[in-house]
Amino acid sequence: MSHSRRSVRILLALVAVLIVSAAIVPAFAQEGGDPAAVAKAGGVMKLQYLGAALGAGMVVIGAGIGIGRFAAAAAEGVARQPQASSQITGAVQLPLFLLEGVAVIAVVTCLLIVILK
């Protein structure tokens, strides 16, 4: 599959997720009343769980794509210049660790949203 076809498929998948998310939000809406009473009844909490789940999912997908691209570039570099494999590996490790750290922090933040309500 060509690179442009894959990009189009990813873009269409993201648009589909956004459309489904936009269709789900009105289902959680409640009519009138005091906002504090609605929050106590759990109307707002359902959206919080949905947002945390979508956020965690997007973070994991993004981190997976980023780590995969880094690893592919490193493997290609080592294949082209095997004598520079230690330098390439050393140069790729720091961005990979930073990307993984950001992903872990984002997932923990999404879980804290759920836990702390």
Task: Give an overview of the whole structure.
The chain has one domain: Up-down Bundle (F1FO ATP Synthase), CATH 1.20.20.10. The protein has four helices and no strands. The chain has helices spanning 3-24, 35-41, 43-80, 85-116. Helix 3 runs antiparallel to helix 4 (85-116). The relative contact order is 0.10. By secondary structure, the chain is mainly α. Helices cover 85% and strands 0% of the residues. The model has no long low-confidence stretch (mean pLDDT 78).
Concise account of the structure shown:
This protein has 117 residues and is mainly α.
CATH T-level fold name: F1FO ATP Synthase
Uncertain regions: pLDDT < 50 for 5+ in a row? Answer: none
Report the count of strand segments. Answer: 0
Instruction: Please estimate the helix content.
Output: over 70%
Strand proportion: under 5%
How would you summarize the topology of this molecule?
Blueprint: H1 3-24, H2 35-41, H3 43-80, H4 85-116
List the keywords.
0% strand, flat, mainly alpha, 4 helices, F1FO ATP Synthase, single chain
